[in-house]
Amino acid sequence: MKGFLKTTFAVVVGICLFTGIFFVGGLVFFVGLAASTSSSQPVTIDQHSVLELKLSQQIAEIGEVDPFESLNSSYFPSKGSASLHEYLDIINKAAADDNISGIYLKGGYFGGSMPMAVEIRAALKAFKSEGKFIYAYADNISEAGYYIISEADKIYLNPIGDLEFNGLSSEILYWKDFFKKIGVEPEVFRVGKYKSAVEPFMTNKMSSANKEQISSYLNSLNDIYLQGVSDSRGIAVEELKEISNKMKIRSSEDALALKFVDELTYEDEVTTQLASELDLEDSNDISFVKYNKYKDVTDPRSRQLGEGKVVVLSAEGEIIYGKAEGGSKAIANVDLVKEINDLADDDDVDAVVLRVNSPGGSALSSDIIWRAVQNLKKKKPVVASMSTYAASGGYYISMGCDKIVAYPNTITGSIGIFGLGFNPSELMQKKLGIKSYAVSTGEFSNFQSMLDDFSDEDFDIIQKSVEKGYKVFTSKAAEGRHMKIDDLLAVAQGRVWTGIQAKKVGLVDELGGYNEAIKIAADLAGLEEGDYKVKYLPGEVDFFQEILKGMDMEVQSRVKQAVLGEYSIKMDKLTNWMQSLQGVQAAIPYYEEIEGFERP
């Protein structure tokens, strides 16, 4: 729905600007309509209500409210997202609410990342410990979806539905021959044998070092996944491995026979069983409460907290230099440093949790943010809480914190540096017939021109810059982790680790999510449980500001998708990669997808 509104609103504004007319009244109506779709007034619910959670609900670190959620349909799907901390709080709130008897998980595709699923599973388990039930129904269940669903008391699958359970795989696109055919020469500079972000531009096949690291963290992720399913369903891990390796679940009947689901049935039959669970005569009598409505229900929990304050500051997206513009979701040093400095100067804030969800990006921007964290740490404790990714630049901005907390399946590490440029001289001169001439005052005045071949001296200058960046990165990482530089270098080299692996090699202090990080930060500040409140920044994204900031990008995206179809996403990755590579980079591979794990 939001995408439709952005496009429509862009056209309307364009027409207004072209004709010199601006309908103020229409805009007021537009804003008024949005305001009328959401109410901040507390609402009440019936006794024995059931909280309905759509598994496909988009979950992000920084949520975005869609005021037109109530108009959601298959034609205009909602683009809103829930913040993870609020999603968890809703489950915890329901656990304490005497009017909520159970949770109904609906659908089989998970709208968050697997590390997020770890904390959601824990919240669901705590919910059940209050003597409440969880039922789950889906027409089809994905691998990621099942990780959540397996925690339910009863799992129902459509009789002709499917359940995916065949392990993880990672597929990388290699571009070397493509660039050779079009006459563009990638110029690659890197440090670290595992720094495989630039590998697709250097070769046509996966290196043994890259294969080693991918195999290592994929198997680690898979082990964490299987252990979770085993704990929930009571099936031995070795048996689960055999089922997964041989893909023994190929039909709904297989899922039932292997005890992955409890019944094969249709949704109307599930609601009938729910009614029976609630001692109701008819399924129509069930009082389902949806997520958005339950947010406005009066909280039954006591909120009498002390004067202390712990702030959770979320940093989500690619790390870029400068300011974030055009409604893009990115970590920009100018914006984040200002927020960090404000927290440093706020005497009412006792401790900070820096919540990081980033695959990295600009090395310069990462270092500027690192410096701000150091200044903050001089005044109050700072704890890094790693989400889906906190790798390369994401690790860089985390490594200076007093403590680092990660999920077992967080992707982290990738301590390495690279540089990448593209020389299109053959394309321009031989294929397109375009020549260039430059007049310069010095030998290197035209240094790094896109239309000149790189000389050995040019290459040496950039390579030394990359090596310097790696030395700075590793020395600061060793200092932050209180490790000898040789010990740090042994686990660096651009290698990617899961959270559980990172803890073993000393790159992470504790395993856990929000709660663990907040407790550690409070403890470092000398605050006892119950003596502090928690504030989350920057808060949910303003819908209308995002529409105005992102209109042009949305229109361009829709045109591109109409032309390229299913290939538009892959081309977006390539073009975004090439456009974003300004200066030395600290980022993990962008061309890698883990098949089986949905990600936001």
Automatic annotation (TrEMBL):
It is found in: Membrane. Pfam families: Peptidase_S49 (PF01343). Residues 127-280, 376-527 form the Peptidase S49 domain. The chain crosses the membrane at residues 9-35. Keywords: Hydrolase, Membrane, Protease, Serine protease, Transmembrane, Transmembrane helix. Belongs to the peptidase S49 family. This is Signal peptide peptidase SppA. It comes from Flammeovirga kamogawensis. The gene is sppA.
